[in-house]
Structure formats: C-alpha cells, structure tokens
Automatic annotation (TrEMBL):
UniProt name for this protein: OsrF
Gene3D superfamilies noted in UniProt: CV3147-like, CV3147-like domain
InterPro entries: S-Me-THD-like_C, S-Me-THD_C_sf, S-Me-THD_N, S-Me-THD_N_sf
Signal peptide as annotated in the record: none
Domain (S-Me-THD-like C-terminal): residue spans on this chain: 177-322
Record domain S-Me-THD N-terminal: where: 10-147
Highest classification ranks of the organism: Bacteria, Bacillati, Bacillota, Bacilli, Bacillales
Amino acid sequence: MSRRILTFEDAKKAVYGGCILGGGGGGWIEEGLQKAEAAFMMGSPELLSIEELEDKDYVACVSLVGAPSVKEAYIDSKQLTETVKQMQREFDKPIKALMTNENGASTTVNGWLQAAATGLPFLDTPCNGRAHPTGSMGSMNLSEVEGYTSIQTFAGGKGGKKVKGSITASLGLSSSAVRSVSVQAGGMVGVCRNPIDIGYVKRNAAVGGITQAMELGGVFLSIPEGPERIEAVTSYLKGRVIHSGKVSHFELKETGGFDVGTVVIDDLELTFWNEYMTVEMHGERKGTFPDLIMTFDAETGKPLVSAEIKEGIEIAVISVSKENLKLSSTMFNEKLLKTVEPIIQKKII
C-alpha cells in the first residue's frame, strides 16, 4: 500500500489503536472520533507511504500542544487548517505532505482534517510511534541539528483567549513559546511546525506508525467488549498484563500545560507526565518510558488515558518493551529523556 484514500472505518481503528499506543497521553477517544468526523466532513484524506516521496521533498508536522485535562481548550477546523496555510506562506519550499507528531487517540488522526481541507496527503510516518510529553520529543532529534531554525505556526482558543501566529526561533525556544501560548489560549493550540526533508524523516521518524495504529485498533475492535480485548492487544504488541485491581489513590496536577501525577493499585504504582513514565510493583521497576505503559478498564477492556483515571475504578495495566514499538530517534536521546526525571522524581535513564 503506497497510497490510498482513507475511510471513517480506518479512522476509528486509528483512534483506538492510537489511544493504546498513546501510553496514557495523546488525547481522548471521544475527541479523536470527533476529530475524525470533522476530517471527513472536509473530504477524504489520502494516506501516503514515505517511499512515494523524494528525499529532497519537504513535509511539515501538525500537532496539538497543551494538557488533555483542561476543559477550556478550544480549536476549530478553520484554526487547524489556517496553521497549515500559514506555514505554506512562511516556508520558502513546497510542503508535499503532512505528518503527525505522535500516536494517540486524538493525535494519530492529527492532520487528517488539514490534509482533507488542503488536498495535501497524510504521511504514514508519525514523528514518534507512541505519545510523549514534550515538543522536543516529537521533533525527530532536530534539537541535535546545529543551527536548525524551527518555524511553528499556531492557532486556538475562542473569545478573549483566541490566538494565532507564528514563531521562528531555535527549536527549544519556539517549543517553549508555543507551550506558553497554549496555556494562555485556554489549554491547547493547534500547531504546524518544523518543515524538514524526507531523507531526514526516514532516518528519525516512526515509518509505518499510522498503519500500526490502524492494525492495532482493528485487533481491539474485532473482539467483543470485555477483558479479552486487553489480552488481544497485549498479544499483538508482544507485551504483558502486569496487574489488575482497584485504584486506591489517584493524584493529578495540571502544571505548565502538562498533567503530572500518580496512580496506585494495591502494591503497584504508576507515575505519569501526560503519558505513563514508570510502573513499579512492590518497588520493583516493571516498565520505564519509552516502554509503553497503558491502563484499561478491567471490565470492558476500554483503554483509559491518565486523565481519565479515578479512585475506586477497576483497571488493568500493561507494559510493552520499547523494542516492540515504532519509535523516533528522540526516544533514545538521553538528554531528552533526562528531562522527565525532575518532573516525576524517578530515574528514567
């Protein structure tokens, strides 16, 4: 499959598979399905294999920046599309396709609407095949490219919080600025950013990551509602169920545009920074980001992001080794991974 027109059934699979690969972040299922519906109201996006483009062709990444728990967050279809059109005006070479920054319930279908609205194809290569907390982790190690200038166009919010614009700066500075804008805009903005050539993308992104999300979602949806769904996706990903039980403690703090907290089930403790970062049983480490750690409703099998957890609910926790995921080169960059440690007060490296 080098290129094909996507269907709403593909989108549904992408949302559920993306939610699991989100590892606690990457947006909510309901949000992803709404985004997919909005995309198909614009037209039919086309999924494009990276082999269809020349190494010298340029693509741009679309993403959402903000905290999934914030209720004031607002972005509409026009704002999302405008970020791409603004990028086409700002960048001096043609943008041949759009790509998403990561897999997640909402983020796997990031860009389907913009692709349908602009006629640009959507690349079967997310920057990262799982979800991650920081903008730099979704930037394919461009933070290591000396002198790279990041262009980021953004839009979001409504009423007095409505904002749109662009910033051209170093990657770290531009990402921090957009994160700050997302807080001011009510919690989230849509972004089009970091145009880069396909040769670089091939070396640093998660080639085939959208197809993996759709295949995983297909496995999940093919099983009737129940705990068997958890077993099926764990088997597909070559992972394991670590523990099932009732949540005895849940803490979430919204800090600087991120959700940070802990989940405790019996003798198991999870930490998260949007995504789950560590899982420990009896104090023994059972999974460490970028390993995939994910929670599910133990009865229905529905994947649950970190912001959905509540005390008293029965959940199952799975872990999948990073070797079984499609990951960006950023997931092996110790400098980027080190930024997690002071946030969750745990060792990652």
